[in-house]
Amino acid sequence: MAAEAEARFSGAVDQQHVRAHVGEHHAAEGTRADGFEFEDLQSGERSHGRDDSFEPAMSELLKRTDRLWSGEASTAQAEFHPFAGPRLLEELAPGVAFFKAFVNVTAVKTDDGLVLVDTGAYLPASHMLSFEAVRGWNRGRLHTAVYTHGHVDHAYGLPPFLAEARERGWAAPRIVGHENVLPRMQRYVRTAGYNSIINTRQFAVETHWPVEFQAPTDTYTDHLELSVGGTRFQLHHARGETDDHTWVFLPETKTLCTGDLFIWAAPNAGNPQKVQRYAVEWAAALRAMAALNPELLLPGHGLPIAGAARVQAALLDTAAYLESLVNQTLERLNAGETLYEILEGVRPPAALAAKPYLRPVYDEPEFIVRNLWRCFGGWHSGVPSELKPSPRRAPRPGTRRALRRRRTAAGAQPRAAGGRRRANGGASGGLGGRRAA
Ligand SMILES: [Zn+2]
Q1: pTM of the model
Q2: Pairwise CA distance, residues 114 & 142, whole Å
Q3: Which of 9, 19, 288, 333 would disulfide-bridge 84, Cβ 3.0–4.6 Å?
């Protein structure tokens, strides 16, 4: 995903907002990254406790969530799109801060330093915003970072924290991720050209795919419980948007970090230019999250959701949405329908498609069905003539062949010869805007 796109959605981070919910003590400390003093965890962080500044009722982010929930606003509006700003950090549960930007970062204060869930995007302009927002809230050593998955907007934002640790002589943070994160990062090096091209096309911003990464120092397979400074973090692996996802539950505050398994949009389970996604396991993961009765949902993109009933609705509706697409697709697949018949016939249930958090503002149910076809079957559409079709190479722009194709499409007779002219031939018409990663 191209983090450059973030620039289109929000302005600079608002330090007033960063401070809005962190109390006088922190506000007086300043926010500049280069102005930090080592904070004595013994006398500092421990003594003033975790909830001295906790004022959830003041939350600007949760007020925005209310507007979406009531239908007063919609994720179809640029301002409320899951990738939109407002680049605001708030403490939403005692010791749990959430930075909302193109991609979200959660920071948790513990007695042994900070824990991050996700780290920000790979571009310095982007990850410096989350770094400064976190440092405006708390200056304790970064103890642990958890990657919810290896996408470049979530797992490539550690450089300023690592530089800070080197400057201050702190131990480098532990980096925790699922065991499939490293193979993903290695694959991204092998496919850097492709990923640069597709993200440039998708986001209409020139993208230079990163080939340097910070691999996890600690990996796990199914579940992992971490305890940092007296705070517990329960990590659960699930395949969903990716094969390397981790969702995190903090039992003390009943806080759930979903990664991209919830992003205030129809699940990104059909992305046309990306590798296989896993809708079946995704739905199961959402149900497993709901079973823990979280009271605060902090998503990978989009606004936080507070309150057990709302969190249940968001998780279970999204699970039901995916399950419906899966079941409809399987039924038609098993009845022998072609890919195209299935695409025409499968629709998400209207009541679920109307939910404020399930609008197709990034991926589309039609694309999810295509991905399910690939998941359960092969790549062949089921139409015999498409098994070994005649060549359909897209002509290069400006060639005679491209020109002939354009004339034919416009209803003119193809000519045997023609000068070299510009034409719009090409393999792709582009996907347009931020939709359809
Ligand atoms: Zn993401």
Answers
A1: 0.81
A2: 5
A3: 9
For residues 361 and 367, the answer to whether their CB atoms sit within 8 Å is no
> Ligand 1 is a single-atom ion; what residues have CB below 5 A from it?
260, 300
Q: How far is the CA of 328 from the centre of ligand 1 (A)?
A: 27
Which spans in 14-101 are helix H?
15-19, 23-27, 60-70
Ligand 1 centroid to residue 36 C-alpha, Å: 30
Domains with residue ranges and CATH for the chain? 3-321 (3.60.15.30)
Residue 139 Cα to ligand 1 midpoint, Å, equals: 26
Interval between CA 118 and ligand 1 midpoint (Å):
10
Residues 286 and 319 sit within 8 Å (Cβ to Cβ): yes
Query: How many A from CA of 153 to the centre of ligand 1?
Result: 6
Distance in angstroms (rounded) separating the CA atoms of residues 232 and 247: 14
Q: Is 259 exposed, middle or buried (CB count within 10 Å of its CB: 0-12, 13-18, 19+)?
A: buried
Burial zone of 201 (CB within 10 Å; 0-12 exposed, 13-18 middle, 19+ buried):
middle
Per-residue pLDDT of the chain (437 residues; tens, 9 = 90+): 444 444 343 333 333 333 333 332 333 233 222 222 222 222 233 333 344 445 556 899 999 999 999 999 999 999 999 999 999 999 999 999 999 999 999 999 999 999 999 999 999 999 999 999 999 999 999 999 999 999 999 999 999 999 999 999 999 999 999 999 999 999 999 999 999 999 999 999 999 999 999 999 999 999 999 999 999 999 999 999 999 999 999 999 999 999 999 999 999 999 999 999 999 999 999 999 999 999 999 999 999 999 999 999 999 999 999 999 999 999 999 999 999 999 999 999 999 999 999 999 999 999 999 999 999 999 999 999 999 998 877 766 666 776 676 666 666 554 444 334 433 333 333 333 344 43
Amino acid at 337: E
